[in-house]
Amino acid sequence: MGAPGWSGWVHRCGVGRVRRLLVAARGLTALRVARTARRLGWSPVGVVTAADRDAVWTRALDDAAEVTAYDDVDALLAAARSLGASGLHPGVGFAAEEADLARGALAAALAWAGPSPEALALLSDKARLAELLAGLDVDAPLTSEVLDGVPALERFRERVDGAVVLKAAHGGGGRGLTRLLPGADAEAAWTAALGLGPLIAQAEAPRARHLEVQALADGERVLTLGTRECSVQRRSQKLVEEAPAVGVGLGAVGAMEEATRRVLSEVGYRGAATCEFLLPADGVPLLLEVNARLQVEHAVTEEVTGVDLVAAQLLLAEGRDVEEALRVAGPGARLEGNRVLTGGHAVEARVYAEDPVTLLPQDGDLLGVEVPVSLGRERAAVVAGSPVGAPRLRVERGLFPGDALRPEYSEPVALVTGVGADRDEALAALDEALGQVAVRGPRTLVPLLRRVLHQPALLDPRGLWTRWLEDGLLRGAVLETRDDGQGPAEASSPAGPQEMRAPMAATLLSLHPAGPVRAGEQLAVLEAMKMRLPLRAEGDGVLVPEVGGSPRPVRAGELLGRVLPGGADPEDVGAPTSPSGVRDPRSAAGPSPASPRHRSARERVEELVDDGSLRDLLDEDAVLTARARLNGREVAVWAQDPTVRGGTMGLAGSRRVAALIDAAADDVVPVLSLLDGGGARVQEGVDALAGAGLVLAAETRARGRTMQLGLVLGAAAGGAAYAPALTDVLVMVEGAARVLLTGPAVVASVTGERVDAESLGGAALHSRRAGTTHLTVPDERAAWEAARRVLGYAPLSAPSLLTAPAPGRALPMRVGGAGALPVPTDSGTGAVLPDDPSQPYDVRDVLTRLTDRGELLELRSDWAASAVTGLARVGGVPVGVVATQPAVLAGALTAQAAQKVEEHLALCERLGLPVLTLVDTPGFLPGTESEASGVVRHGARLVAAYAAAGARARLVTLLTRRAYGGAYVALGSTALAGALSLAWPTARIGVMDAGSAVDLIHRRELAAARSEQSEDAVVELRSRLVAEQERSEAPGTALEHGWVSEVVAPATTRARLARAFSAPGPGAPLLRPVGGVRHPGDGWVECGCGRRHWGLNGAAGLLVWRRRDEGIEVLLQLRSGWTHQGGTWGVPGGAVADGEDSATAALRELEEETGLPARVLRLGAPHVQQHPDWSYTTWTAGAPSDGTWDALLPVDGESAALAWTPLTATPSGTWAPPVPSGADGGPLLPALAAVWDELAVLLPQPAEVLTD
After folding, report:
1. Which of 75, 967, 1060, 1100 is labelled catalytic?
2. Rounded (5°) CA angle 1043-1044-1050
3. Are 182 and 149 a contacting pair, CB within 8 Å?
4. How far is Cα 307 from Cα 443, in angstroms, rounded to an integer?
5. What is the predicted pLDDT for the residue at 475?
6. Known catalytic residue: 718?
């Protein structure tokens, strides 16, 4: 059947009217709805949370409001008001089935793309739905009323022969579903389901298939649009869906369609709905639930009916009846009575970021995502000028390179659908596509999905059932988590503490209170990707929680608690917690709970680095040295072994460590040191001291050549204390780490002072008073996590293949993010500053708005707190961050703050980082104490540091509010450091604040006024003078004089910073994307023309054009800063891969870089730039004129932005070179500009287009 044809839509739907549609969704659902909304003439606007603020998908919205949660009904309605929306689409999940949202939307006179509040309230309540089905004589599973506790659950079980399913009474999606087998512990099942809201129980249908019927209704008439098969599931969550369902008798299909029409007619349903059924092998279909919204799997129905279900929803919301909606949303659909006929077959696979064996959700960054948009046969048909039919692909995505995974949402990396004339062809197309999916970073279910597609059971779906995957194909996998209420394990008491850690990134829903626990008892419940995972005690003991405040997000591997053996000291259970809810290890005497015993170097290193990556390992003489990988990065690691000779260092071990550091520095490989042991080995005397000198010398030589990261896990005493202090970033474990020159015994002997080791050299002292350590963490697992995070800023080797002729150091750029142009989510940046310029605020709130994802890694946060220093990313580029902190001393610089900033600049220089400085300061702190502390000396060093940095690195200084006195000059001002100086309109720049300046400059005039005029007159005079002074301190004055480079609005600042840090030029670092993949054929060609070109087989690009209101427009790509000719506008393209022709390569590159499917294009004529040893072919292609592809996303990371750019005719009747709007003067790619006149003649000419 195929997707609907859209020719003529623009005219019929009246695109000239600008209407705003609030899309109450995120990710791929938001993109899917926005795409069709544009087709129908709506302007899509949306909502985002802080965590999603710079996710790539948000760039498809025309505007957005920030909300705390996607299911906050009041916030959604407020967003609709603030954004001027006239319609609301509820999306999928979240608040989509909330009657209050429907009620609020209708009360606000919004076009509501859903059913009435009354229908929603009834259908989303499973207990009420069961009553309705019974009254309509529709077959359904035996269902309880809302349960009020375990006794009610037990009473219901007595009515059921087999298993019982415990589930939420409201909502769909199988979230938190718990099976209760006969004889299983009902109380355990009940506890596991807590937090879902009201609960019901249903009798489980044995070995049943999961089938669905899609419907559209207008309140009177109900149309069915075929069936779907959704039986391939894990944990009651669908993985593979297809349409239509096969192997289902006509009688069963008719019964399901009749039940669907009967139920929806009864409630006067309006909109799209799905009725879900269970079909036992030897029974009749049972109506399980009604989803009163769009389904994730709607694409398979669209492909076999030709109906755009989102379009139908929006048209019904506008008041159309189903037949009218169908004429527009499915002009090629075939209607037979109240049934839309299907044609062909479609199979969809959900590519989740989960381990394909354990099915545990993954977290972290998507370093790269490659999902084919079309099959090779589709591109070949376009090249040949033939129609594209079946087989073909359809892909929906909401995650792109550089995005962070959010396990709290059940968002697939991609939905990949194979479409064919029949089921075999569709399955083959899907399998071919999955074979080309490449995801770098997390694991995905692709191997499992491909294994599923090749199972004999899938050839005859009559053998499938909802637990086929878990009880059949995956039996024996590490999947069982005892969430079926099977009862307690055999009692035992482990010899040592049992650590309870989160096996995945998730939401902690509940945590057992501190106290005694039994073996097998449920200690915690986690939820991720709509799946619940209970954690149970391995043995009897006493639980000591390490976190609190559930529900709360937890990281993979995060320590949630410990089960101590039964005889543990009860005092340890009640130890106080920190404000964050984490138990404070400093509260108990003795060794840290994080380190109950000394651990060997081998044990620690294996836990830290990537599995199986250790090599060149030598573990002797109380020190381990090795090469390994950490988060995929090559690292050198050395670790003291406290279990051998107390971890003391001898000459042999020291020589090995020094050699390791020197070799790592030569290779630009980061060095990790794990410190826990004594200093120089006393028995070796001067040789041991010489060994310490060798290590310290090697560390000093490596400074500025590679990153050195120190992890202090225990003692670092005597001369060994200098080793961590020489690293670039130092991490200390609270309660266990000690960095000191002399121990308590020596101090007592020499000075008479009685002090313990923690007070003398613990993490608290070095973080708050000495400023030695950059980060403190609660335990060793947290230290490993900190190491992984810090490592993301380490410079790496830059091979000439990807960057420049000469290799060197480069910064690891993370692709993705909000991009180099302003996006809707930037609009809230300015609201962070208080209206009252004298009111303090936390500068970190500004930094989170300006940096990628708000991920500021603050260093030395507890020391010299009037200045904030840290590491972050802006536009994917690692940067050092400096900011004055108005919340502490009004942002005044102290001697310690100046020292902190100066040392941070030195760190940034060693790592090759550009520096962003935020200035809101009244100046250096005045007073006797400040002067005595050395503020002049440290201030002078700060001045020198910025002046020197300006000659070596890219500096950007942002003036947000107060920029006064010597502190303004010192903090990277243009005059001092040559920095790019940006100022918000709220900035005031002067020697001192306006009031103080007036009192100084006009003191005689004011004194005379006080003696001659009334008090009111003096106040009026002073106010006038202050206003005049403030105007002179406004940034416009500094701009005129050249001391401010630009005045920027807060809403455009993030994008401006992204362009500044990624643009090539003097002081710009080399940038290299992490995890980049090369196609066969990528590489530099040394051409006979004397230049180097990219593409061993040549290169190809595509100049895509489409008609617009008057004339035509072309698709341009703003190249990312790390690419060749970064910062210029060109056309999508790249190297011709081995075995490709130039046209196929151009289409493939277009799909990879823009997501625009080749099948919608009409290929035109090519232009060839021929060099002696290389060629570049630019093909032209026409694209559809409707709004479907208005907001293309730069999906591969090589593009900073994509823009449809209108062409203007010259007086001579040709097309002038395109000028992208919003490009801020960004030029065309020189190669494109050079041949534009030759390309322009291949496009429809002005005389032809403008007279149409």
Report:
1. 967
2. 165
3. no
4. 34
5. 72
6. yes
Q: Is the dihedral of CA 740, 746, 747, 750 positive or negative?
A: negative
Same domain, 298 and 393: yes
| Cis status of the peptide bond prior to 551, with omega within 30 of 0 | yes
- What tokens appear for 1138 in the block? 């081995």
Residues 84, 87, 90: CA angle, nearest 5 degrees:
115
Residue of 561, 719, 743, 1127 marked catalytic: 719
pLDDT tens-digit map of 250-305 = 999 999 999 999 999 999 999 999 999 999 988 899 999 999 999 999 999 999 99
Whether residues 521 and 394 share a domain: the answer is no
For residue 77, the tally of other CB atoms under 10 A from its CB is: 23
Annotated catalytic residue, options 966, 1036, 1111, 1182: 966
Does 825 map to a domain? no
State yes or no: is 966 an active-site residue: yes
Find out whether 936 and 901 touch, Cβ atoms under 8 Å.
Answer: no
CB 511 within 8 A of CB 462: no
Q: Which residues lie below 8 Å from residue 1143, measured CB to CB, with a gap of 6+?
A: 383, 1100, 1163, 1166, 1177, 1179
pLDDT value for 589:
32
Whole-structure pTM value: 0.86
Instruction: Answer positive or negative: Cα dihedral of 735, 736, 740, 746.
Output: positive
90 and 131 belong to one structural domain = no
* Tokens, residue 883: 């900011």
Tell whether 608 and 708 lie within a shared domain.
Answer: yes
Tell me what pLDDT residue 1224 has. Answer: 52
Write the CA distances from 670 to 691, 792, 907, integer angstroms: 22, 11, 14
Between 1014 and 453, whose confidence is greater? 453
HSE (CB half, 13 Å, CA atoms) of 814? 30
Strand pairing report for 270-280 and 339-340: unpaired
User: From CA 884, how far away is CA 847, in angstroms rounded?
Assistant: 11
570 domain residue, yes or no: no
Say how far apart CA 1097 and CA 1099 lie, in whole Å. Answer: 7
- Indicate whether 804 belongs to any domain: no
1099 is catalytic: no
| Residue-range definition of the domain harbouring residue 530 | 509-538+549-556
Three-state SS for 1200?
strand
The answer to whether residues 761 and 896 belong to one domain is no
The last residue of one of the domains, among 556, 589, 624, is: 556
Answer whether 706's CB lies under 8 Å from 670's CB.
Answer: yes
Query: Which of 437, 463, 489 is where one domain is finished?
Result: 463
- Non-local (6+) Cβ contacts of 78 within 8 A are 65
CATH of the domain at 1146: 3.90.79.10
Same domain, 657 and 522: no
How many distinct structural domains can be found in the chain?
A: 6
The answer to whether 408 touches 51, Cβ cutoff 8 Å, is: no
Q: Is residue 51 part of a domain?
A: yes
**Are the C-beta atoms of 1134 and 1177 separated by less than 8 Å?**
no
User: Pick the catalytic residue: 718, 819, 1075, 1226?
Assistant: 718
Position 176 scores a pLDDT of: 66
* CATH number, position 308: 3.30.470.20
d(CA 269, CA 115): 6
Is residue 878 domain-shared with residue 781, that is, in the same domain?
A: no
d(CA 335, CA 742) in angstroms, rounded, equals: 88
Residues 530 and 630 in one domain: no
* DSSP 8-state assignment for residue 68: S
| Torsion angle of C-alpha atoms 1037, 1043, 1049, 1051, degrees rounded to 10 | -170
Please, which residues have CB within 8 angstroms of residue 3's CB and are 6 or more apart in sequence?
302, 303, 306, 308, 394
Helix (H, G, I), strand (E, B) or coil at 260: helix
Annotation marks residue 719 as catalytic: yes
**Maximum mean pLDDT: which of 432-446, 466-480, 789-803:** 432-446
CA 1002, 1003, 1008, 1009 dihedral sign is positive
Q: Is residue 227 within 8 Å of 256, Cβ to Cβ? A: yes
Retrieve residue 343's tokens: 């044609």
Cα 702–Cα 708–Cα 714 angle in degrees, nearest 5: 130
